[in-house]
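task queued by scheduler; priority normal; single chain, no ligands, no partner chains; default sampling; output format set to structure tokens
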Amino acid sequence: MAFTIPQNAPFRADIVGSFLRPDKLKNARNLHRQGLLDDAGLKQVEDECITDLISKQIRHGLRVITDGEFRRSWWHLDFMWGLQGVAKASRERGYGFVGIDTRAETAVITGKITGENHPFVEHFKFVKQFESKGYGLVARQTIPAPAQTLATFLNVRNSEFATSWQEHYENEDALIEDLGAAYRQVIKDLYFAGCRSIQFDDCTWSVLCDKELVEKSGIDVDRLAALYLKANNAAIKDKPDDLAICTHICRGNYRSHYFSSGAYDRVANVVFAHENVDAFYLEYDDDRSGTFEALKFIPQNRKVVLGIITSKKPELENINELESRVREAAKYFPLDNLCVSTQCGFASTEEGNELSEAEQWAKIDLVIDLAQKVWG
């Protein structure tokens, strides 16, 4: 059977999904943490800020709309905390990015994992209503990839909880089976809420591509790659034909800092060749990303979104140089199946990257202009 990509994602000019939190929202979340604003009050502010964000997304010419991840603190942990059998936990120290540590929080397994009543479904319903604001608008839900959730539970980088998952699962295969079922439940609930575009965000593969991290941590790349692929494909299994599930493979994004470096080549023959997603959103904004040669492993009936405009720095790239890079990528993957975006979101956590909202929207405008210049 031929692989047909749903027309729900990606788009020639696309986004990764997260946006800088406005001061109004940051203040509300701080008040909520201090017990000075109740849940209803926080939700009201979130609703107002998301409504304003979506109006800006539409005004700037995007076809895809998201809530900017405004209801989250983290791009990944909030989703994990919403699963049944998972709880929030503190770490001894944050995740060690290059030049900075994150806040010291994580997710741990407290029982058998299931996906019923996930709060993200209600979050999506709020965004869905805005599809009526323009022709061809698509509401997207971003969630961490199953591989990312698995890696968190296996505690590859989290030694103080290194074996806690084994209190509830006899082996990794049993954990992956329940995790896949939980994701399929959330995906099913999102689908029935009207969602036709889901994005997996995934930092696991880039860790496997970082030679220094691999050697320092003693990582068995081939073993973990097999586990991550199994987890991701288990979640995608039997998805509806009109639901686009794409993945963004990231090297880490915390206050304009990164976690890992290295070309995709080390794992391309696994993830690019065999992950059953509709499209790959790939980071190619600097030399840490390597060449485009790894794109040759992606089946040519998929799509690739080139993240060649950085969301980490405010300076605007030269559009002619960007076009040249798209043409270079087309030597390895069909131009007609390429799209463009920023390499990552603007605020993978609520702290956000080191640029202003005006600079953020200038980046979005550049994505739009580049797509127009390349494809007309």
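post-processing summary
- Residues 39-59 form the longest helix (21 residues).
- The mean pLDDT is 91.
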